[in-house]
Every structure is written in structure tokens, then in C-alpha cells.
Design a protein that fits this description.
By secondary structure, this protein is an alpha/beta fold. The chain has three domains: about 1-50 and about 90-110, no CATH class; about 125-185, no CATH class; about 190-360, von Willebrand factor, type A domain (Rossmann fold, 3-Layer(aba) Sandwich). The protein has helices spanning about 1-20, 25-30, 100-110, 145-160, 205-225, 245-250, 260-275, 295-310, 330-335, 355-360, and strands at about 40-50, 90-100, 125-135, 180-200, 230-235, 240-245, 280-285, 315-320, 345-350. The strands form two sheets. Strands 3, 4, 5, 6, 7, 8 and 9 form a seven-stranded mixed β-sheet that branches. Strand 8 (about 315-320), helix 9 (about 330-335) and strand 9 form a beta-alpha-beta unit.
């Protein structure tokens, strides 16, 4: 019976996985998963159609009674559509929990994303405890019940106390065995994602929602590739500052735009907290392409070339179209770094462009 349940559950998970994969573009475009996110999983609403079934009840007439012969077609239009609404719903919504790891796997399959290969020697030794032996002492939470019972059974058999007609074995204190562990140092890659966003007056709520949706999926994929990962958030208009996640997505300023302020803060965070010998570094910058001046754009290019690119796995710039932004900055970056594989830019016209932008950023496996 348990085996049957396991098979049915596995089939159900496959159905859910197929439905999520089929509708992935819709989930990404609408952003409905983000508000349902937990620590390790998301709640996905799936439409569920109820199957028809027979019900017993009073009918007033017997089966097969009434006018007409066997095989006669039913008369069309016998009902006029009037009457009270039915009591049962025809369609329901089923909430299904999907782990973020599984969601990342679906994203990788759908977009054909390569697994990321950590660069250089950016690994740290991480301690892992592994249960590898048996001890005579230990905490009760680690008692090995099977071995304890076998030891007690052998003792009673050897002493002649075991009664097959009353097979009760009570372990004594000296019978107890406990799991023991060894601590091993294993190299583990770690990464940091640095999100930067223009929050000047030209970036409206819709542009910020696009950034929020895209960064959720970027974050989901990168977390599936690295065990240890941190996230930083930088907002900027004419000046830049580091903020928490909530402020990052909801802050709106009315000032101008000076992109170099964000790149300066990003470079400083890397220098002070995330040395490239220990970290895989992923800065992502989102704006509508408007900058204060051409001279500031030149400064951004110089900062990228000298202070940021030599230390990061990849720098991503996503340009979100707005009614007020010039859209010039992406063209300037493309012209400045035509053959630089670590600079990846994307143009997001609307929510329908999020999926292609994600593939652009993650498709190189850097």
C-alpha cells in the first residue's frame, strides 16, 4: 500500500512539474510566484477540473422511464437556461508546493541553461559532519535503535532469558549504541549577487516590477548553482546607497541619474567584502538607459574596465524601457565592450521580454 502511494505521489509530482514547465512563461510574466515564496519553496496555483461522478438521491422517476424509445436522440433546446445556479463549482484552484531547487531545474531545462563552472580558485573549506561510525556513548537523539535492539537480543539469547512465547526484548543501559560522526573539510564555492537599480523619477512602478520578477529568477538559478550565496542591493539616482531587499524594490526618488555612483559603490563593496580569490561575483544593473551626461558614461566604462570586470564572473546590464528614459546607456556599453564576454546586456521592452533577458544573462554559464 505504501509503495502504491509513493508511485501515485511521484506521478502527481510529474504532472505538476509538466504543468509548471508548460506555463513557465506565464508564471514569469505575471510574477505571481514571488508573493507566494517561502524559505525553501513557492506555492503555485494550478487549475483543477473536478471529475464527474455518480451520486445517489431521489430522482422522481426510475432509470430508463419517460417518453421515447431506446436509442432515440434527446430533443434539442429542451432547457431554456433559466433556473437557479448550481451548488458545485466546475473548476477549482489547487495550491501546490514546489521547491526552489525544482523550480530552478525547470527553468534550466526550459531555457537550456548550462551549469555554471566557478572561476579560478574561488572556493572555501567548509566543515561537514558525516555519521560514519558507532559509539557506546552519545546523546539519546542519536541512539541507533536497530543496533541497540540486536545487541540486547544477543545478550538475552546468550543468557537464556529470551522466551520465544513472549518475545519482549528490553535493552539495558549497556546495550545502547549511538551514531558517531567525523568532521571533514570539503571545498565549496561561494558567490555574491550585487543588484543595482536606478530609482530616479523616470523608473516607474512597472519598471521596478519587471526588475523584481527578473531578479527573483536570476536569484533562483544562481542559488541552485552555489551552496553559499549572499545578496547585496544598491539603489541610485544621482547618488548611490546600499539598502535592504524591501527598500530596493519599493524606494522611489525624484532626482536625476548618475550611474557611476552605483558602480563606485559596487567596486568598493567588492574590494572591502568580497575578494575575488574567495568569491564568485555577479553584479546586475537595471535602469531605463538614462544617464546624467556622456562624461559620466565614460567614467562608468572606465570603472567597469579597470575595477569591476577583472574581479567578477560576469557583469549584467538590463535596460528596462520607460516612457522617460533615453535608452542610450545600453548602446554605449555595447560599443565600449563589443568583444568582452563578461559584459552581457539585455533590452527588456515589457514583461514579455523577461524570459529572453534571463536566458541572455544566464545562457553562457559563467
Amino acid at each position: 500500500m505504501v509503495h502504491r502511494i509513493d508511485i501515485d505521489h511521484a506521478r502527481f509530482r510529474q504532472i505538476v512539474r509538466g504543468r509548471v514547465k508548460r506555463d513557465l512563461a506565464r508564471y514569469i510574466t505575471h510574477g505571481e510566484l514571488i508573493g507566494r515564496r517561502g524559505k525553501e519553496s513557492v506555492s503555485i496555483p494550478l487549475p483543477q477540473v473536478s471529475l464527474p461522478r455518480f451520486r445517489f438521491g431521489e430522482n422522481g422517476k426510475g432509470v430508463g422511464q419517460g417518453p421515447g424509445e431506446e436509442g432515440s436522440p434527446m430533443q434539442p433546446g429542451e432547457g431554456d437556461g433559466s433556473g437557479q445556479a448550481g451548488a458545485d463549482a466546475a473548476e477549482h484552484t489547487l495550491e501546490v508546493e514546489v521547491t526552489l531547487e525544482e523550480l530552478a531545474a525547470i527553468l534550466g531545462e526550459e531555457l537550456e541553461l548550462p551549469n555554471i563552472e566557478p572561476r579560478g580558485e574561488r572556493e572555501v573549506d567548509s566543515a561537514h559532519d558525516r555519521f560514519s561510525g558507532i559509539s557506546n556513548v552519545g546523546p539519546e537523539g542519536l541512539r541507533h535503535f536497530r543496533r541497540t535492539f540486536r545487541r540486547a537480543l544477543r545478550r538475552e539469547l546468550a543468557s537464556g532469558q529470551y522466551d520465544p512465547r513472549n518475545p519482549i526484548v528490553v535493552p539495558h543501559r549497556e546495550d545502547r549504541l549511538y551514531k558517531s560522526w567525523t568532521t571533514r573539510e570539503a571545498p565549496e564555492s561561494r558567490a555574491v549577487i550585487i543588484y543595482m537599480m536606478d530609482v530616479s523619477g523616470s523608473m516607474g512602478n512597472e519598471q521596478k516590477e519587471i526588475v523584481r520578477i527578473e531578479s527573483f529568477w536570476l536569484d533562483t538559478w544562481l542559488r541552485s548553482q552555489y551552496k553559499n550565496i549572499e545578496t547585496c542591493y544598491i539603489v541610485h539616482d544621482a547618488a548611490a546607497k546600499e539598502v535592504d531587499q524591501e527598500t530596493f524594490y519599493h524606494l522611489r526618488e525624484s532626482g536625476g541619474t548618475k550611474i557611476s555612483s552605483a558602480y563606485e559603490l559596487c567596486a568598493r563593496l567588492i574590494d572591502e567584502r568580497y575578494p575575488p580569490s574567495d568569491w564568485n561575483i555577479y553584479p546586475f544593473h537595471f535602469s531605463d538607459g538614462d544617464n546624467w551626461s556622456g562624461k559620466d558614461t565614460e567614467r562608468c566604462v572606465a570603472m567597469l574596465r579597470e575595477r569591476i570586470l577583472p574581479k567578477v564572473n560576469q557583469f549584467g546590464y538590463g535596460q528596462v524601457k520607460s516612457a522617460y528614459g533615453t535608452g542610450q546607456f545600453k548602446g554605449d556599453l555595447d560599443a565600449a565592450f563589443p568583444d568582452e564576454p563578461r559584459v552581457v546586456t539585455s533590452d527588456v521592452q515589457n514583461r514579455d521580454g523577461i524570459l529572453d533577458s534571463i536566458k541572455t544573462f544566464l545562457g553562457k554559464g559563467r
